[in-house]
Design goal:
single chain; 270 residues; alpha+beta; TATA-Binding Protein; Protein Transport Mog1p, Chain A; 2 domains; 39% strand
Length: 270
């Protein structure tokens, strides 16, 4: 019973975090449309146009010394005065979400507000309600049995063709690692390197797999007893850094083999 409660609590926390990320990313694919702007602040774009959960998004963030409720009231009043259906959600103390539907343009604008270090942090978002990207399955990204939640993310105009998947999976770290490795092997990917890191009393495993022209980086962490997160990034052959992917894989594999030889020599010298 306690384990069920713990797993449920962790699931809620992780899902809540991923949901906030999705809310932050309420962005549009149309270049002429802008994210919401709060007067007197500098808005910093987060990435380019994104594809999250099969929809186009654009987002940015800003900070202000104005109280969170004042910022929320500004957006709510502005959009309602303009005649758009507007909703205010959240506990109004720790977080406020204001969103509005721009039905004629087929857009949804929103802002997620939180307080941090005495300031109000706002994540403004624009979501395209009409356009949809082609439904192509993410290459090399696995979805395991026992997956509680999975979220895909891709950059719409990323020249490197990268795709990302974040998953919450039922299973101990070693078991999840074994299943990810087996699924990637089934897809024709070969292991390149494997790193185990101790972080804050926990363990994190990072794996790199490759097949011709493609790489998959997988990071697995155990967030609670019987529950792990799997973060994956797939990179195609047209890399953003202009390095041919096969060459990058070769160098990575050589570095890993050299590291293993070095560790073996140290062990033999003891």
């Amino acid at each position: 019973m306690n384990r069920t409660r713990r797993s449920g609590a962790v699931t809620s926390r992780v899902l809540g975090l991923l949901l906030v990320c999705a809310l932050l990313a309420s962005g549009s694919a149309r270049a002429e449309q802008q994210v919401p702007v709060y007067p007197g602040t500098i808005h910093t774009r987060i990435g380019n146009d994104l594809v999250i959960g099969g929809e186009y998004y654009r987002l940015a963030y800003f900070t202000t010394t104005d109280p969170m409720k004042k910022v929320a009231e500004y957006f709510a009043k502005k959009w309602r005065d303009e005649g758009y259906p507007t909703v205010v959600e959240g506990d109004l103390e720790n977080e406020i979400v204001v969103s509005a539907l721009f039905t004629r343009e087929g857009l949804q604008r929103g802002v997620v507000l939180r307080t941090h270090a005495g300031k109000t942090v706002g994540f403004t978002a624009l979501r395209d309600l009409w356009s949809r990207p082609p439904k192509t399955p993410p290459a090399g990204l696995v979805k395991l049995e026992g997956t509680v939640y999975s979220q895909d993310l891709a950059t719409r105009d990323d020249p490197g063709g990268s795709q990302n998947r974040t998953s919450l999976v039922t299973g101990e770290l070693n078991d999840v690692q074994r299943r990810v490795d087996a699924e990637l092997g089934r897809q024709g990917f070969s292991p390149v390197r494997n790193t185990v890191t101790k972080l804050g009393g926990g363990t994190q495993v990072t794996m790199e797999h490759a097949r011709k022209g493609e790489q998959v980086m997988t990071t697995i962490s155990e967030v609670d007893e019987g529950m792990s997160t799997v973060l994956q990034t797939w990179v195609g052959s047209d890399r953003p850094d202009a390095v041919p992917n096969d060459e990058a894989v070769r160098k990575s594999r050589e570095a890993w083999e050299q590291e293993q030889k070095s560790q073996a020599k140290k062990g033999a010298g003891r």
